[in-house]
Amino acid sequence: MNAITAVPDQAAPIAQRLPGDRDVWIFICAELLMFGAFFIAYIVNRASELAVFNDSQRTLDRTCGVINTLILISSSWAVVQALAAARSRRPQLISTYLGVAIALGVAFMLVKVFEYTAKFEAGLSMLTNTFYMFYFCLTMIHLMHVVAGTVILTVMWNKARAGGYDSGPLQGLETGASYWHMVDLLWIFLFALLYLLR
Amino acid sequence: MNTLLRNTNHRTWLLLVIATAATYWLREDAQLGAIAGFVTLAIAYAKGRLVVLDYMELRHAPRLWRSLLEGWLVAVTAIILLVYRYGLPEFGGGNVAG
Amino acid sequence: MDEKTSLRYELISAWCGPAFFITFIIFWVIIGHNLPNPSPALSAVDLAARYIENLGQIRLGFIISLITVVFYMPWTCVLTVQMWRIEGKAPVLSLLQLLGGALTVMVVSFSAMFWVVAAFRPERDPAITQMLTDTGWLCIDLQYACTTLQMVAAALVGLADKRAVPLFPRWVCYLTIWCGISFFPASLTGVLKTGPFAWNGALSYYIPYFCWLCWYTTASVYMIKDVRRRMSGASVPATSRGFVPGMSV
């Protein structure tokens, strides 16, 4: 441990370094704790109403869930590519990749709207039963994070197009990327819990 | 294909896609029963770890931060697994009142 | 007013933060029987019985809460002044924070007042008592956005604070924004009567209220530190020092 702290940050490309703003990582950890509480609340309630949860889960559109998982995974990938482009100083690629990530973020929202509409038309709402209460609450809270993340990506996209990441530090870009990956990470668990676990 | 596998970003993306497809297939195959649940959770953990280590670039982050995020993954997965196991019908789950 | 007196009022106002926190916990949470709070799924008769059983304490708790809630006001004022100093000529966010804090007091007051009214005539039709209880809880749980704005405004100014020793550390600012966001599930209390998102649930009650008080106490600590720092800078005599524990300027 002493040896590690003695090495300055710039010593090697693979030196121990936290990407982005350390203070935003505290925010991310707080978000993770909050969603951790959501997940635990879900699984505990599920244990006492197993039949309701399993029956209701069958009525979910699993294809929508899979598509949304692939969308977020790919969107995260595009953000990683944008960061790589910024680090290797290929400015025009940064905004292209960020544009792809934003488009995928919007696609996620559209799939979700389609899914919600189908549920409402089938007469299902968060008052239907405990499963649907969790389904709507958790996915809506997550959707708000997707919207916020897409706004952050759009701000970064604007800055990239104005040449904001052509030189100088990339901390802002790294920070926004970390937030977007968190949105992805949370969905991976939501998808497994709501759509798959039976 | 070679470049696809040599680039960490592309490789992580491919692994995540394969893992997602695997969980989808697991659900289609109803015969596996409870094992499918455990595997689904294990895959979710593995996917989460890939996102944390490769996408979030915490593989080479200071130990504190890496262990914070990895600790969250382990804790959340472990609690879900535990409650899931005791919620299974063969362990008397589903009959618990309240 | 000379600077010394002015600073002393600032310090007293900042200490109203801990005063609010302690009195809120004692009167609103413990004596007011809000730990645990009544379930929205409770029948009107059971709810009325809950009032009758704890009548004295519920009355005492909320009537005193209605007085001590105003500790939030001087605290909000000192935060406004501290933010104003950072913001300069156009203190939009400072004033927004001031409004948010003032309205938070009204939201908390009105909800407690509805419960006092509910406890006023315990012998009346339980359905009316239930309605007053509902009104109180939905009043405090659905109108959190005023407080969220107060918190976000404080956090944004805190993040823009480029002084050598800022009012709030950056992590406190991000945590403030997160705490403000953590209130959002409380909106579901307007629809749900059971489960973790109902007004007695972990995700709509315990976590958001904990976050609110957590932000409030953390901010108080840094606000008091800020005043103490300026007091030592203004070479105030040692008499006003020494009663703030844990201070190292």
Tell me the structural class of chain B.
mainly alpha
Number of strands of chain B: 0
Low-confidence stretches of chain C: 236-249
The residue fraction in helices of chain B comes out at over 70%
Summarize the amount of helix of chain C as a percent range: over 70%
Strands of chain C, total number: 0
When the domains of chain C are counted, the total is 1
Describe the structure.
The complex is a heterotrimer of chains A (198), B (98) and C (249). By secondary structure, chain A is mainly α. Helices cover 79% and strands 0% of the residues of chain A. Chain A is built from seven helices and no strands. Chain A has helices at residues 2-6, 22-48, 50-58, 62-87, 91-121, 130-161, 171-196. In chain A, α4 (62-87) runs antiparallel to α5, α4 runs antiparallel to α7 (171-196) and α6 (130-161) runs antiparallel to α7. In chain A, 44% of the residues are buried. Chain B has one domain (2-91). Chain B contains four helices and no strands. Chain B has helices spanning 2-6, 8-28, 34-55, 63-87. Helices cover 70% and strands 0% of the residues of chain C. Chain C is built from nine helices and no strands. Chain C has helices spanning 3-31, 44-53, 55-68, 72-87, 92-120, 126-142, 145-160, 170-181, 202-233. Chains in contact: A-B, A-C. At the A-B interface, α2, α4 and α7 of A face α2, α3 and α4 of B.
Short account of what is shown:
The complex is a heterotrimer of chains A (198), B (98) and C (249). Helices cover 79% and strands 0% of the residues of chain A.
Topology:
The complex is a heterotrimer of chains A (198), B (98) and C (249).
Chain A (H helix, E strand, L loop, with lengths): L1 H5 L15 H27 L1 H9 L3 H26 L3 H31 L8 H32 L9 H26 L2
Chain B lengths: L1 H5 L1 H21 L5 H22 L7 H25 L11
Helix pairs in contact in B: 2-3, 3-4
Chain C lengths: L2 H29 L12 H10 L1 H14 L3 H16 L4 H29 L5 H17 L2 H16 L9 H12 L20 H32 L16
Helix pairs in contact in C: 1-3, 1-4, 1-9, 2-6, 3-5, 4-5, 4-7, 5-6, 5-7, 7-8, 8-9
List the main descriptive attributes of the protein structure presented here.
heterotrimer; A: 198 residues; mainly alpha; Four Helix Bundle (Hemerythrin (Met), subunit A); 7 helices; 79% helix; C: 249 residues; 9 helices
